[in-house]
Amino acid sequence: MSKKFEKPNMVPVPSHSIIPDRDVGKSPILECNHLGIDFGGLRAVDDFNLTVGRTEIAGLIGPNGAGKTTVFNLLTKVYQPTRGTILLDGIDTAGKSTIQINRMGIARTFQNIRLFSNLTVEDNVKIGLHNQEVYSTFSGIFRLPKYWKKEKVAHERALELLSIFDMQDMAAMKAGSLPYGAQRRLEIVRALATNPSLLLLDEPAAGMNPSETAELMENIVKIRDMFQIAVLLIEHDMSLVMSICEGICVLNFGQVIAKGTAEEIQANPAVIEAYLGKKKEA
Amino acid sequence: MNKLNNMKKSTKVDFATYLGVIIAFIVITVLMNNGTLGRKQVGLLVPACCYVVMAVSLNLTVGILGELSLGHAGFMSVGAFSGVIAAMSLAEAIPFEPLRLAIAMVAGAVCAGIAGVIVGVPVLRLRGDYLAIVTLAFGEIIKDLINCLIVGHDSEGLHIIFNFKGLKTVDDLGLLPGGNVIIKGAQGATGTDTIASFTAGVVLILITLFVVLNLIHSRTGRAVMAIRDNRIAAESVGINITKYKLIAFVTSATLAGAAGALYGLNYSSLQATKFNFNTSILVLVFVVLGGLGNIWGSIVAAIVLYVLPEALRSVADLRMLVYAIVLILVMLATNSPKMKAVLSRVIPRKKGDEVNE
Ligand SMILES: Nc1ncnc2c1ncn2[C@@H]1O[C@H](COP(=O)(O)OP(=O)(O)OP(=O)(O)O)[C@@H](O)[C@H]1O
Ligand SMILES: [Mg+2]
């Protein structure tokens, strides 16, 4: 870390988020080194270092405008980073497009829900399966055997994925007509359909009531266990973050101010200051 | 019946659309054979079929892909003139008219498809609504290009010259005796064999429906609609935006080309100015009034709005009034949720489809 940005009373920042025991010895799924991006004069993210283990559930937290969503946009190449490198499963992702990144194994959800709202729930998931159950446009138009075979598999797979959140009964509904919480869950299902090795969730519990949030937490852990994938999530709901995240990374003004386990983060003065503001002398 | 109930709602709507076209074809054929339809009405049948195909194909670009195209008539024009050239130059080689018509329509479709690639490749790579302006320009440019085109055919094959400076005439083609001129610059195509038929028109409509409906309900169609609904999300699930935009746009142009060829071979003389901006807008009106993404709506709107003004010529005074009322009714019928609710009751849906809200 460059000395320049270190504030006087800041605790030393561990260079890695906490990799769970089961992942120790395996290569990490994600490694960001000195990642940064500027928007004009604004350093939205600077010197961002993070390592996520193969089956880790990691949290990215921080006050509003800290740069969390921007990190996701960097990881998925919605923005090309100004500085630094991103290694996905050891492979450098420099110069890759959003589409290639998805094929390499990163899937995401969006803070402002982005569903295909005029299409059915099932079609939304099938669109996630676009690169999994492949057949040509020609077979599609002429309904060749491959069309029937792949469509059948896609249908079954879509329902199976929806059943994670017990949403298979909603398959024929329009995505846009779903209640808010269900829309968020559908985004997760759609992301899972792309068969990722790293799932990025941008405020998955936003707008959910406490019981929905509790259920979501269970399901995130279930998804990790079922698919053996890593999850990196942004969340303002601290109960969710503290209870399911094995490693937590705290951002403030585009910089990492702390990394560690839930206990370490909760006890960290820099984090408390970032969230509550510095105690006024007066 | 049980099988019908288990079908998806969209499949039922598709089925009803095909059935409607076939029933209309049978009814009209019967009316034609027993002399109920006059010559004037019969003359409207082929162009009505062409406009149906135009509307359905444009709906693929505008309603399904969600990109505005203001030059659909340009593709019709490319199809019309290439179809006429193909049909006229094969006149001796293939005397059997239906086959010659089919070949002409394929030629028109291929040429319009190539034009679609040329327009689409540079434009559809860009983000933002550039397609509208570029297709608008394309329509105008094609009109001017065809106005400079002089084409003839003789025993040596095709002779083509571009009369950019306005100095050349048909004599410059250097046709051998027995050769004939197919396109005479601004005068357009003259002396064309009118080999188009209503049956061919209906077959083309059915082929168009087959291609468009099957495309929509396939992996490709879902990708196209995903791009329409949310481009960023579509990218995030690994959909190649440019590729699927191009597939939809070129398919749309190709079908317009086939419609153009049929249209061109329905008249002994045809000018490029027929396929102007107004024609593009007319087809767009069919699509918008029929409902974006609603295929049967496009068919109904194209038929009603094309045939009606012609039929109303006898009551000239009331013509615009009736036309306006029909416009409003078509809009209500194809777009209103109430009307859709009525229709969905008529077309029974699977239990539990939308009840768990
Ligand atoms: N495309 C952009 N152009 C310019 N500035 C941007 C852009 N995207 C983000 N920013 C700025 O970068 C900073 C970080 O934004 P970001 O959306 O990443 O915050 P966040 O941590 O996700 O906040 P929140 O909790 O509110 O979602 C903000 O100051 C924002 O205004
Ligand atoms: Mg954010």
Structural description of this entry:
The complex is a heterodimer of chains A (282) and B (357). Chain A has 282 residues and is an alpha/beta fold. Chain A has two domains: 1-105 and 196-282, Rossmann fold (3-Layer(aba) Sandwich), CATH 3.40.50.300; 118-194, no CATH class. In chain A, 35% of the residues lie in helices and 21% in strands. Chain A has ten helices and ten strands. Chain A has helices at 68-75, 98-104, 121-128, 137-142, 145-162, 180-193, 210-227, 238-244, 262-266, 269-276, and strands at 30-39, 42-52, 57-61, 83-88, 91-92, 106-108, 198-202, 230-234, 247-252, 255-260. In chain A, the strands form two sheets. Chain A has a six-stranded mixed β-sheet, with helices on both faces. Chain B has 357 residues and is mainly alpha-helical. Chain B has a single domain (2-346), classed as ABC transporter involved in vitamin B12 uptake, BtuC. Chain B is 66% helix and 5% strand. Chain B contains 14 helices and three strands. Chain B has helices at 2-6, 9-33, 39-64, 72-89, 97-124, 131-147, 198-216, 219-229, 231-236, 241-264, 277-290, 295-311, 319-335, 337-346, and strands at residues 149-154, 157-162, 180-184. Chain B has a three-stranded antiparallel β-sheet. In chain B, a hairpin with a 2-residue loop joins strand 1 and strand 2 (157-162). In chain B, helix 3 (39-64) runs parallel beside helix 7 (198-216), helix 5 crosses helix 6 and helix 8 (219-229) crosses helix 10. Chain B is globular, with a radius of gyration of 22 Å. Chain A binds chain B through residues 76, 78, 97-99, 102-103, 107-108, 110, 114-119, 123, 126-128, 130-131, 133-135, 137, 140-143, 147, 150-151, 154, 169-170, 172-173, 177, 190-191, 193-194, and chain B through 9, 210-211, 214-215, 218-223, 225-226, 228-230, 232-241, 247, 293, 350, 352-354, 356-357. Adenosine-5'-triphosphate binds next to strand 2 and helix 1 of chain A.
